[in-house]
Amino acid sequence: MNNKSTKLPRQPLARLSGLASLAGRIAGSVLVNGAKQLAQGQSPKAKDLLLTPANLLRVSDKLAQLRGAAMKVGQLLSMDAGDLLPAELAEILARLRSNANPMLPKELALVLRTELGEQWQQHFSQFTFSPMAAASIGQVHLAHHDNGQKLAVKVQYPGVRQSIDSDVDNVALLLKISGLVPDGVDYRSLLEEAKLQLHQEADYVQEAAYLQRYRALLAGDDQFVLPVLYPELCTSQLMTMSFVDAVPIESLEKYPQAVRDQAMTQLFALLFREIFEFKLVQTDPNFANYLYQPESAKLVLLDFGACRDYPEQISQGYRLLLSAAVQNDRVGMELAMRQIGFFSQDILPGQKQAILALVQLISEPVQQNRAYAFGQTDLAQRVRKAGTALSMQQNYWHTPPVAAIFLHRKMAGFYLLAARLNARVNVRQLLEPYLA
């Protein structure tokens, strides 16, 4: 986590001027570096002038300072655009996933007074001002209740909710005038999605309600641990939960194969329960949302800001889609995808077949009734290559229904985590009870 506290610009004009000045500095560096290369008899390329380490650092540092919507766009671009971005830009933007600049102490104290009253300290026997984590919407602090319970207090950055739409539009302007994102990347749909996602994640009352729903749904499942909510210490901008001691899910890389396999088996099994039983899915694939308790072999589930309810029609559509994919039934796959909401646009037969082939490729782990070795396959690269070809080479960008976008991101996140942990999971075996 970045420990450099900065004051968060609150007024739209101040936030816009910050981005505008950044674009100006980038343009200035392009002119200076271009002039230097011309003086040396070289023929500078615009891309090379733009994508200098200094410019990339300027972008990531400014987004981290603005936090909120600006930072979320950086996160979405680094996660979703993948190999479509220059490697340098993707690497710098990846820093933004959990690297916001924390609030100044006096700014934090003001939020606490506003949300819990002038005597906010009376609710805690101890409160640590230095955050444990700082992300795009808020930061998390360690505290202790009067009863001795260790707490995690999530505090939202002031002004984030009000600045979401204007910030996203400002970042779109920055990307356009700086030229830092290649023309071939359709990032406009990502920007609109960022607005919707951020408005939902900024509603801590709704997130608290989702956490309570998940606690009820998983009450009889001893494979998972969820924080206990303290409703009396929750507001629209502050959320207080019990602190759960565990290690990052990525640390399982160092654990035995059986442990890694079991952890991913638990997560895939939970995903199928979410889709087909709960019809409620936590759609954020961020690895930080999952922790592991070595002593109990239980998984800890965190952060319920990106939950979505799925109607029976969509749940049943995915049941039919996966069933057809298992049987390599293209006709059945098309019917199921139409039920989910695909193919609502006019497309050519060849384009439709390319989309079906892409979905069939993504379904590879369920097409074999044995453990799928995620760490020994290039599935992610093949899916990315096919998706890129579909959107660029065939001159067609098919926009999936919103419900599918969120669910597919969750699936893709689990594929990436399973590959990182080099896990082996019989996904078909986990899925089959829902296909009967």
Word description of this protein:
The protein is an alpha+beta fold. Helix content is 53%, strand content 10%. The strands form four sheets. Strands 1, 2, 3, 4 and 6 form a five-stranded antiparallel β-sheet that branches. The chain has a four-stranded mixed β-sheet with strand order 5-10-9-7, covered by helices on one side. The chain has a two-stranded antiparallel sheet with strand order 8-11. A hairpin with a 3-residue loop joins strand 2 and strand 3. Helix 1 (12-39) runs antiparallel to helix 3 and helix 3 packs parallel to helix 5. It is globular and about 65 Å long.
Which class best fits the helix and strand makeup?
Answer: alpha+beta
Whole-Å distance between the termini?
46 Å
Strand content: 5-15%
Backbone CA Rg: 23 Å
Mean pLDDT across the residues is: 79
Number of strands: 13
Poorly predicted sequence stretches spanning 5 or more consecutive residues: 43-50
Give the topology string: H per helix, E per strand: HHHHHHEEEEHHHEEEHEEEEHHHEHHEH
Question: So how many helices?
Answer: 16
Q: Helix amount, in percent? A: 40-55%
